[in-house]
Amino acid sequence: MASYLKHLTASAPLPSFTREALADIPIRSLFENANVSLANTPWYWTAAAIIGSLLVLEQSVYRYKKKHLPGSSWTIPLIGKFADSVNPTMEGYMAQWAQGALSAISVFNIFIVMASTNEHSRKILNSPNHAEPCLVYSAKKVLMAENWVFLTGKEHVDYRKVLNTLFTRKALATYINIMDSITREHITEWLADAARDPSPKPIMMTARNLNMETSLRVFCGRHVPQEGAREIADKYWHITKALELVNFPFALPGTKIYNAIQARKVAMRWLETAAAKAKAAMAEGGEPECMLEEWVRVMEQPTYKGRKDFSNKEMAMVVLSFLFASQDAMSSGLIYGFQHLADSPEILAKLREEQYRVRGGDVDKPMTLEMIDEMPYLMAFVKESMRMKPPVTMVPYKTTKAFPISNDYTVPNGSMVIPTFYNSLHDESIYPKSEELIPERWLDADSSANANPRNYLVFGSGPHRCIGIEYATMNMGLVLALASILMDYEHVLTPESEKVQIIATLFPKDGCLLKLTPRPRP
Ligand code: HEM
User: Fold this and answer.
1) Does some domain include residue 123?
2) DSSP 150-180
3) Which residues line ligand 1 (CB under 6 A)?
4) I need a labelling partner for 155 at 20 to 30 A (CA). Which of 147, 254, 405, 426 fits?
5) Are residues 461 and 355 both part of a single domain?
6) 53 and 200 assigned to the same domain
């Protein structure tokens, strides 16, 4: 360290880049004489001068990049708004969005432009030549750098074409049987638990566990044994915690990232084995019963033109990416779905009426895609519930070149640029009474909600738009429908029920306390 500092004597002139950058800043006088020789100055003054210069440089670069955008006119040295991002709150985000269509912040010297309007958010999502998704820093370590989710441009488009075949209507028809039976098993367990202890309980983990088992079975079928499914579900929480927007960046033992990497290793072992077993099962013939088998079968078809040489590891990484992308968002959507229904008895009554009508009163009838087609109210509710509380409120992107995002502002290359969805989804001109839950707005073909699909950014937009939309909405609809005809559920309100907790996605702060009882059959 000492020798390093020795080389950095203040007798050296500041690099020209630095001088140019500093020329723009109001504290210029500090640097005007920066190239005077200080050869006789003690090293600690030299070090102090360098540190001081770097701190001033940090401020000036921030102000240079920020230009006229709203946002603090200076940034906290080194860490910036780190403290705010450790415990993000909806109120904090809303205050940021209220600053303007575009606003600036800096965290750990990463310059960030936040977009709060529909126009700017869509522009970011639909400008692949200027910006690409940048999952949180830890994501590459946790999901592995070679995972397809980190592909961009043509490579991404080609890979995604293959994966789109896993979400066709034919494939979804296979998955819905799995969803139906697993959901019924879980509801039976929930009711058995409630019979043993009728006190209200948060459904936070209950819903997460259901989603995890459903997804694992949909993706891997019988190829992940019960023991593996339990182990993945138990460890998965570590992955969720490591993927928060801001985290300690090094994978030292005991840190969230370290724990998440260990959890991923366990999951990958089971998922790779599942991919191998799915290939073997399809080689023996038979109809696909899960996504991995569907994938193998699609590749065998004569009409299939894409890649065929997917290794077990690659297939496992895709499943891992789906688990990662689905688990938190779908759980958030489901938990708010329960909360919204329990708090809106009129809506719940309409949803139940539709269920009994389409099922002819038979609550044991397994759900099919054709039945879902006849349940517009259910699906309108799911859509509206996520409009009110979008599970994902923002997705970080990074600029790959200078990005002229508006007439008077260009986001510098290498910045983070964040499209946000909340304002789009609560725009009073598109969604009148936007703070009210009104599923009917989606049932009227001429409503402003339906006339402006561009505003519905719950699943993003552009080349990286969510691949699992149909699967996610269908699963949420199915769970809420079955829960509503098989159970009565009462939401026990607490002072935290309306407060939002952000764990990557949004959740009610009290975890949504529900009191469950079996519902008499019609
Ligand atoms: C309610 C549930 C869900 C919500 C709200 C949601 C939301 C999102 C959003 C906002 C994005 C970013 C889009 C963009 O950058 O434009 C995304 C991407 C993605 N989602 Fe979802 N998602 C959900 C469920 C799922 C499920 C169930 C799966 C998998 C089966 C999934 C897989 C993915 C993948 C793989 C991507 C990245 C796509 C790409 O880069 O091409 N998501 N999702």
Assistant:
1) no
2) G--HHHHHHHHHHHHGGGSHHHHHHHHHHHH
3) 125, 133, 149, 160, 321-322, 325-326, 329-330, 333, 391-392, 395, 458-462, 464-468, 471-472
4) 405
5) yes
6) no
